[in-house]
Amino acid sequence: MTQTRPSARQPDQMRPVSFERHYTRHAEGSVLVSFGHTRVLCTASVDDRSPPWLRGTGEGWVTAEYSMLPRATHTRSAREVVKGAPGGRTHEIQRLIGRALRAVVDRRALGERQIILDCDVLQADGGTRTAAITGAYVALVDATRKMLKNKMIAKDPIHGQVAAVSVGIWKSIPVLDLDYAEDSDCETDMNVVLNDGMGFIELQGTAEGHAFRQDELDVMLTLARKGATELHAAQREALSRD
Amino acid sequence: MTQTRPSARQPDQMRPVSFERHYTRHAEGSVLVSFGHTRVLCTASVDDRSPPWLRGTGEGWVTAEYSMLPRATHTRSAREVVKGAPGGRTHEIQRLIGRALRAVVDRRALGERQIILDCDVLQADGGTRTAAITGAYVALVDATRKMLKNKMIAKDPIHGQVAAVSVGIWKSIPVLDLDYAEDSDCETDMNVVLNDGMGFIELQGTAEGHAFRQDELDVMLTLARKGATELHAAQREALSRD
Amino acid sequence: MTQTRPSARQPDQMRPVSFERHYTRHAEGSVLVSFGHTRVLCTASVDDRSPPWLRGTGEGWVTAEYSMLPRATHTRSAREVVKGAPGGRTHEIQRLIGRALRAVVDRRALGERQIILDCDVLQADGGTRTAAITGAYVALVDATRKMLKNKMIAKDPIHGQVAAVSVGIWKSIPVLDLDYAEDSDCETDMNVVLNDGMGFIELQGTAEGHAFRQDELDVMLTLARKGATELHAAQREALSRD
Amino acid sequence: MTQTRPSARQPDQMRPVSFERHYTRHAEGSVLVSFGHTRVLCTASVDDRSPPWLRGTGEGWVTAEYSMLPRATHTRSAREVVKGAPGGRTHEIQRLIGRALRAVVDRRALGERQIILDCDVLQADGGTRTAAITGAYVALVDATRKMLKNKMIAKDPIHGQVAAVSVGIWKSIPVLDLDYAEDSDCETDMNVVLNDGMGFIELQGTAEGHAFRQDELDVMLTLARKGATELHAAQREALSRD
Amino acid sequence: MTQTRPSARQPDQMRPVSFERHYTRHAEGSVLVSFGHTRVLCTASVDDRSPPWLRGTGEGWVTAEYSMLPRATHTRSAREVVKGAPGGRTHEIQRLIGRALRAVVDRRALGERQIILDCDVLQADGGTRTAAITGAYVALVDATRKMLKNKMIAKDPIHGQVAAVSVGIWKSIPVLDLDYAEDSDCETDMNVVLNDGMGFIELQGTAEGHAFRQDELDVMLTLARKGATELHAAQREALSRD
Amino acid sequence: MTQTRPSARQPDQMRPVSFERHYTRHAEGSVLVSFGHTRVLCTASVDDRSPPWLRGTGEGWVTAEYSMLPRATHTRSAREVVKGAPGGRTHEIQRLIGRALRAVVDRRALGERQIILDCDVLQADGGTRTAAITGAYVALVDATRKMLKNKMIAKDPIHGQVAAVSVGIWKSIPVLDLDYAEDSDCETDMNVVLNDGMGFIELQGTAEGHAFRQDELDVMLTLARKGATELHAAQREALSRD
């Protein structure tokens, strides 16, 4: 008999997802994204200076920074500034967010500018990086709309839609969108970044317990496509308002 | 003729103040405090280990950390972790918050524990340190109530109430609770931390333009007392709910 | 007509692979692994102290550190110590190596010890992380053999075999084991860590150009299995000598 | 009956104050200031480059750095360089010194130059920051006199006089100029920076024990004015020599 | 009766010395130097930018960096990047290597370029700094030959030959070229850098046990000249090949 | 005809040397040493904890830290704390001072304690490291006298006398005790640490211009012995007072 997920969800059921746009006043894009109890504030800031290695190329850049507030988690974690440098996990996640978002941006249309996506986790319950990518996309679109409106750029630099979701194998059951309780106890954990043509932008799977087989991979990727399709729809719905 | 404040407030009028308790799930105390557009998330985390220099004394400690999200401000500021260490302003503010809150805590009643007050500015519009102190007080009370309820401590360690407010001289007018526009343009800026007996816990005044006189100081302190009285009432009201 | 790879290899052809065991004298395991011109010195050091979080659990740990000599590359890169901290790429790679090797280790059989795998790239020509994982496995086996011989441990802690290989899509052709010239110019790049049961331990794919489709993924994973099979055979051959 | 201060001074009595000008050879201004046993070497260095944010504005800058020699204190303190960064207290003090001195400088008359005030405590016995401000003023005047003499500047940029003094409440007695023994044991500690028109430039009061009342504040400020008047006279006397 | 050295060598006998040129592919000069079991990879990298302080002078620079792989030694040492900064010993050695090599370089003939000598110890058995200097000379010559061949420079900038050797007093016997066992147990340790005219470029002697006398110094310097003569011959032989 | 030294001294003439003992109040030993215009404050602090690697051995340690005040020099140098870490030169000098002083200390007689010698340069005019060693010796003796008097130790741990002096070749003339003007312009610079039996404790010679010959070395060492003899006498004289 199959076990019930701690969250009581069906194996292929996402947590409730919401986007609160214009969450803060100053950023060009500012979105509070929630995947269940996971809440990430994603802001998009337009910077007139592109990074040094792009000067004179006519191309822009999109980069991301990721951080958790100290008490976003069950027990308080020390601020990274106190330790003097971002840890390995932080580096890995912000590099992933940056790559994912650059995959849908025409960097030439941006001009020599940089958009910085700050993803700050206010509350963590698993899936912070997938929520961050999914929310940062909405913040990025808001920022580019503002740039178009202000005639800062002439052409929409966003040429696709991107969302991310986690899948895994929990107690031998392939499941979609793991929360913290499930993630702590799963055998395989995979983060999948998909565009709206169901093309893979990034695939990162790790066997925590036993190595996973090709057939398990296939089931997980089917779940990931289902989740991403729902997230793409939710993003479009959020962006259609106001 | 007197000039009108950018915020159109009366010289002795505070911005709307609100406290959203239980803003996040994991912290023992978690309060989103707003002073107008300034919004600071204050969490209180109970740590079973007191700092090394208090081991064996039977006394506890209360400390604070303060940070701004990169895009809390009009233009994005680099994260301090990227620079490798907190800046001077951050150190100054978090030391101030810690001192202010310790002034109303019976550290012996805490036992050998530490309460860490994290004050993270989500949106800045002037007065972030006064909002942080005022909000951290509410988070601290929530945390100590939980400790009492859980029998972690036997006696309420909070023996007073504390709030902070800024006053200043703007275009020769003494004003209460400066927002960013007023603060950028004022001649004197003073942060006042007051307990509910109207005793001064901390007084920090800086002449930005001309040096201020004793009579100007007296008017500013009268305004500060008015503001603190309102803040103390708002704290009590917030803490009386649920 | 299909294009020829810069290396003139067939799409499914690995570079020549070799393992030089006992390359240095002091380490418990010391292997110079070559994947073509890529040369990585992998040493395994046994440390009697396990990491703090494992004290008292009876379990050991396997961790990895990765670095490039400054002139391993075409142009010299600054040492990370000069910048003050390892960069994001270094963190990502050393975390990957550690996870990959831990997947084949019975940490209880190690006892409360740590094995540190240092992977230092002497010469880089693409695929340094896959060479590092593949070579570190051989160094790890040498170290555990020495521990068994010295009666430091009673039971062989290695319960599987692990190797890593890169696959990618270069000019629309799925190819195996990308060298630097191919990697710089490919559309998709995937690192696959496989055990000797052809189970996936880690899968990390990134679309550099267009997003990749499920059918492209399938072809790449078939190539990865072919490469890993050859690497596992080469590891066994190397370990059968002496 | 009133208690006697550890220093056997009257409540309103300063320690002996002295200024040794031209204490070292190389700096444009170099003053060893003593407040009793507290001895601070204050040097003023003229730097032809103003800070980046002032380039092109025609204005100069005055900044301060503060440090204690490791054995300036009763027990040796580790050098801050060993810890990697200046601590919070150091930041706070050097920011205070800089603000205090800028309050009497016409930054336009300086031109695009920077004067750096280094305040290094050779021996500490309480009141190092007030001694530093008071001594740095003398070093600053010496440096600007040299600039005028060398025709580097045409107009005297010093438009006022500044000195700092501590006041506090020790065993319920308001006292002037606390030494280390008194400071360690006082209920309220306040640093006051005053110009020669008795205007407040900075006011920083902290209740260490009970919160202080308005009437206590008033007495302390009266003491501060007395002390500052004496310090201004001593500065003028020192600057009238040679 | 005289004691036998741990290495069974005569007091005036060097360890076998060898130079493996072109050890790696990318560097302009790349030499693996061995002094017995001590093996150091020395690469010379040509950088088109000279250091800031030489811009506009027409002169170039030669600098060195030195590092040990973590397991070059009997027990593993932590990477310096993990500690955040190179240690004192590293600084001292790389400054020594740089000075020694600059002594035989016509910096004007280099033009405004920098040659960086990276000396990475793969295996340590005493004398790593003397091996590094001796090997770096060969790498430097290879790099300047390539620059001459490529017409990057018109005139050979190398105007002398340099080698380094250690001497010491072990169990009262003056000995040449100490290995690790001898170095750990010696009374005096001296590193001598000599040019091919037997002129001293650097002399660094330290009494570990008793202070050494003038007559002991004289014997040690005679040994050093013998060793350096052999090293100069070996360098010339290596550079005469290919 | 021979040239006259910038200081107008004879080639074998030292600058005036003085020791001001008890220069500051708190340290167990505190000496302001002057070699002409070079002034270094040397304090000796007794620390009850020996370094970790000596715990349980019954032996103590002597270590040194060296720093320059920012404006000890002609132009201001940035504080090392601002750069985040001590530079290579600082490391080299403080390691040298520590080794020199340990050479005359019976570490067993110290017990498991550490004496920290802080050498802070108030004013620099060449020879700061030789002045530091020579002055630190006097501070160290003062500290051990206090330890003997307080019965902290039973036996005098100082078993010799140590002083340091620089020699060099300036305009082809061997000279003693170089000041800044001479040092900046010399061909060879050598620091010699000698005990009172004229044994060498440390010898560090660097050819800045041409390599130096054995006969030049011999003359320089004769000068060094003359200088050290005078310094030893001056130390004894200073220590005989009070």
Describe the structure.
The structure is a homohexamer of 242-residue chains. The first copy, chain A, has 242 residues and is of the alpha+beta class. In chain A, 31% of the residues lie in helices and 29% in strands. The first copy, chain A, is built from six helices and nine strands. Chain A has a five-stranded mixed beta sheet. A four-stranded antiparallel beta sheet of chain A has the order 7-6-8-9. In chain A, strand 8 and strand 9 form a beta hairpin. In chain A, helix 2 (88-102) packs across helix 4 (128-149) and helix 4 packs parallel to helix 6. The radius of gyration of chain A is 18 Å and the shape is globular. Chain A starts with 16 loop residues before the first strand and ends with a helix. Chains in contact: A-B, A-C, B-D, C-E, D-F, E-F. The interface between A and B is medium-sized, with 33 and 33 residues. Strand 9 of chain A pairs antiparallel with strand 9 of chain C, so a sheet runs across the interface.
**What proportion of the residues of chain A form beta strands (DSSP E)?**
25-35%
**Strand arrangement in the largest pleated sheet of chain A:** 1-2-3-5-4
Specify the oligomeric state.
homohexamer
- Note the total helix count of chain A: 6
H/E order of the elements of chain A? EEEEHHHEHEEHEEH
- Main sheet characteristics of chain A: 5 strands, mixed
Mean pLDDT of chain A: 95
* Termini gap of chain A: 47 Å
**Gross geometry of chain A:** globular
| Portion of residues within helices of chain A | 25-40%
Largest interface: A-B, 33 and 33 residues
Gyration radius of chain A (Cα, Å) is: 18 Å
Number of strands of chain A: 9
Low-confidence stretches of chain A: none
- Counting helices, strands and paired strands, the structural category of chain A is alpha+beta
